[in-house]
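Tutorial, part two.
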Amino acid sequence: MSEQEKATPVTPDEIEDIRVSLELDNGEVECRILTIFEAGEQDYIALMPLDSEGNDNEDGEVYLYRYAEDEEGLPQIGFIEDEEEYEIAADRFDELLDEEMFDEM
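Running the prediction step on this input gives:
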């Protein structure tokens, strides 16, 4: 991520409480932010869709989107339309998961 100042800085503990609502073809889905990470020269956000009671989904489904901030520092997410770009982001996210699991051992 860029080193610019964020409009709404959050601590690692606070990020657990932030929710993102997505309007998908099958309706609105509330998601929890898992992480924001860099792959290549682009930032991405990993979102976990929540069930109707606000809990993590049981199948481990995760959505990946492009992440950026506008001039005022407000977050913006966008679809990853290129399959190669998606694979780069997904591979990096998998690496982050592997690193986290290794660190927990």
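The two ends are 27 Å apart (CA to CA). In part three we will examine how such features are distributed along the chain.
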